[in-house]
Amino acid sequence: MLPHYSLTQPFDPERYLQRWLEVERKAAANGFTWATLYENYEDNQYMSDSLLAVPSSLAREVENASRAVNDIFKKTYEQIRKDRSLIHRLGISVFLWDLLLKEEKTAFSYFCRYDFIASANGLKVIEGNTDTPVGLVESAIAQDILCKEHGHLNPNAGMDAKIRNAWTQIIKDYGISSTDTLYFTSADWHDEDKQTVQYLMNLYPQQAKYVPLEEIIVGTDDVQTPDGKKIDFLYRLYPLEYFLEEKGGTGELIGEQFIVHLMNDKLKVINPPSALLMQSKAILSLIWEKKDEWYTRMERDAIEKYFLPTYDSLGNLTSYVKKPVLGREGGGIQIVSKGAVVDEDVDYYQDQATIYQQYFPMPDQTIDTWDGPYTGKLLIGSHVINGEPSGLFFRVGGPITGNLSMFVAYTTR
Hints:
By secondary structure, the chain is an alpha+beta fold. It has helices spanning 13-29, 56-82, 97-100, 136-150, 159-174, 191-202, 254-263, 274-279, 282-289, 297-306; strands spanning 36-39, 42-45, 47-54, 111-119, 122-129, 182-185, 208-210, 217-218, 223-224, 233-236, 268-270, 310-311, 320-324, 334-337, 340-344, 354-358, 364-369, 372-385, 388-397, 406-412. The chain has ten helices and 20 strands.
């Protein structure tokens, strides 16, 4: 596996922080502005300036696994489309069912990230982020800056080109003309989401404009910008199910009207609604249950190799990870090993349906931080853009990978 980071001389906090702040300034100037995250009433380090040396063979295996996993997700989506009754198992609001199963001439998702655990016992995918994946700016911008600081080649150097190719495909699939404007939105207060949207918008080849989510006007006839321009096409870095709870100034649920407009083709969104359908972690239990029914022999081999046994109920598992089906950023997860709780989050998503995934421990990885060497658990995110593996995203944190798990750049050897 990956080598542990080691210091060649005693740790000097002042010297380290001075060097780290210089890297932070360079990253911020290029659009990565959340190298620190304010949470629990204090600044938390999110970007490490360590550089992991990853074996080229591992990087290639993650790339191959990502392609195989994405193909299996695509096949699973096609199977659900054939048997629409299966949607009741996914833990998604019934109000969204017709929208998610609506016939579309698009990919099920154009921007995905699959999260993998790599250890001496193999490589396993633990979930798919198919609706609103982030980590793009880290993988494209901060990764490049850190590789240059360390004097190494950046294995993610092709991400910009992959995203441009995705936009070309989206323009074709959605029928966006050169005179149409694609509006980009996110919660304006959320720095990470807003900068991610700006990064994607900068790579879009036609007319584009940012409009804060808070300023979008949902009327009875259409969706508009604050200055009254009709929105026909919208890239939204905002979970589709969250729209159901959005309220107008007088308390009415304007999110429901937004969903109605999508159903009636008053506007089109990217990622498409099918991306939310495939975001449900219950997809993983469905894949495992149907592996001998839906898939070819090669696909079954890939499922056995890269997927973990996952079920809708606990059954006989004594070591497992319990996950809410629409949880995000580690919220609501419980890890149990041999009957003992290893870690859990009870603050979020406790009202959702859950799945139970066989526990597959993450390997330890040591990185450099403000406070000296830190050893945490390593998770590998793999971006799949327009169906193509497009760059890796490494994080080191606790047994549950949350939003404070640290991003760390990598190179290959």
